[in-house]
Amino acid sequence: MLSRITDEVNECTAFIDIFPFKWMGRLFAPLVNDVYRHYRIIENLVLPEIERRRIAARADPKYTPPVDLLQFMLEFNDKNGDPNSTKDLTSSLMLTAFGAIATNVFIGTHFMYDVAAHPEVRERMYEEQQRIIAKYGTAFSKEALRDMSYMESCLRETLRLNTHAIGTFRKMMTGFTFSNGLSVPAGRLCLVHTRAVNRNDKVYENANEYIPERVADPTNPRAATSVSGYVTFGMGEFGCPGRHFAVGQLKALMAVLIRRYDFTTKSGKRPKDKIQRVTEYLPIDEAVIFTPRA
Ligand code: HEM
């Protein structure tokens, strides 16, 4: 269900946009879209859990709440919002699921295809994993993940080339004139086109090619760091808050695959991406073949 939320939120927005008056779209949207049903399912799961935690906290002053996102949001809401309102909490959980799941699935899939299509990358990654296991054991500690520097370069290259969000939007709060004379007035909505920035051939040689070595120097910015020419996670104060978590998860996922299997695409090449529409990206047809390591 969570993986459908992102697509359905996008579909719902596109549906509402068809109507000249947005209130009409909002009226009809529940009839054709499942977002509202998902909202109620999450609410039905979350409300009793919140109540359980509140009762436990009242009954026992030494009560230690779980360390999770729900608790973090609950305490934030109690401090900053209306403590009786749980509506915001369900929306916040849905927003996080919206931001977290499809992005990771999308990048994880592309990462697998990028690695599957490059035997020399797999070999180097496997060697790195042998070194990591010898040094840290098989667990994915913070130190072990941080030390996977070749894996990090490969992931950064996947993140640079395969962008899920069309771009980052910002509204100009004040007017600004750039050094070349271009002026953007206050109130203007601006789009930073992620794919165009990330594939800028003034920044990268052979910008459309998958070349992890271009960022393999450990002094280069990490996969979660936005810099000029790399804005997959957005930028500035409102850049993605989940990016370090996402990079850790994706590295751990690839480490599990590479330790257990050698894998390649059927053709041995990187299949072309399917057309990505604003609300929809299509799965790649070509299979990945996994061979267990001895
Ligand atoms: C590869 C995975 C991911 C990518 C590419 C990605 C990308 C992005 C981008 C481009 C933005 C907009 C940033 C901006 O406006 O400057 C964003 C926002 C956000 N992301 Fe991520 N994200 C990923 C994973 C995650 C994860 C795992 C979480 C949570 C655990 C998460 C939570 C969020 C949230 C809550 C926002 C909204 C922040 C706000 O509006 O202030 N994301 N993400």
TrEMBL record:
It comes from the Eukaryota. Keywords: Heme, Iron, Metal-binding. Pfam families: p450. GO terms for molecular function: heme binding; iron ion binding; monooxygenase activity; oxidoreductase activity, acting on paired donors, with incorporation or reduction of molecular oxygen. Heme binds at residue 240. Its cofactor is heme. PANTHER family: CYTOCHROME P450, P450, PUTATIVE (EUROFUNG)-RELATED. Belongs to the cytochrome P450 family. This is Cytochrome P450. It comes from Thamnocephalis sphaerospora.
